[in-house]
Amino acid sequence: MSLYLKYRPADFKNLVWQTFVKETLQKAIENNKTVWAYLFCWPRWTGKTSSARIFAKAINCENPINGNPCLECSICLDFAQEKLIDIIEIDAASNTWVDNIREIIEKAQFSPTKTKYKIYIIDEVHMLSKWAFNALLKILEEPPSHVKFILATTETHKVPETIISRCQRYDFKRISNTDIKNRLEYIAWAENIRFDDKAIEYVVKNSWWWLRNAISLFEQLITNDEINYEHIVKKLEIVDENIIESFLNKLLEKDQTAIEIFEKNIEDWKNIKLFFKELLFYTKAKSLNELRLNNDITKYIDILDILDDTYSKTKNSLDENTTFLIGILKILNWYNNKIIHTQNNIQTINTWNTSNTRQAEPTKNKVEKHENNVKDTISHDDVFDIFWDEPSTDSQTNNQVDSNTSNTNSTRFDTNTFKIKLKENWAKWWLVLAIPAAEIELYWDTLSIWTKTKIHRWQFENVDNQNIICKALTEMWIQNPKIKLN
Ligand SMILES: [Zn+2]
Question: Quick check: pTM over 0.70?
Answer without folding.
Answer: no
